[in-house]
Design goal:
20% of the residues lie in helices and 38% in strands. By secondary structure, the chain is of the alpha+beta class. It has a single domain, classed as Vaccinia Virus protein VP39 (Rossmann fold, 3-Layer(aba) Sandwich), CATH 3.40.50.150. It has a 4-stranded mixed β-sheet.
């Protein structure tokens, strides 16, 4: 087994298929709810296009061949340099490939 950890906005479908059976895929990315928070506080940064953000339904569809170990959306306080500061909404996913 091996693990790929990604902190990205867009997941390449070719990576999803490269995980071996029993391997893990981990994502922390901006959720679609982040866009509304970003409008209130532009210092949050992140993508302006909501299509580049995730929803729980997106993950369930894209990772239908994965056992979902964790999938939630949380408000978190970011303090990551100059461009990610303030309360944000992130999606966190941990999945294990079934077969």
């Amino acid at each position: 087994m091996y693990c790929i950890v990604l902190f990205v906005v867009v997941v390449c479908s070719c990576l999803i298929g490269r995980i071996k059976t029993g391997g893990f895929f981990i994502i922390e990315a901006f959720s679609k709810a982040h866009r509304a928070l970003n409008k209130l506080n532009p210092e949050l940064g992140g993508p302006e296009d909501e299509e580049l953000m995730y929803s729980i339904d997106n993950i369930k569809q894209d990772f239908s061949n994965y056992e979902i170990l964790e999938l939630n959306i949380e408000k978190v306080h970011l303090k990551e340099g100059l461009y990610h500061v303030g309360e944000s909404s992130v999606l966190r996913f941990i999945g294990r490939k079934k077969h």
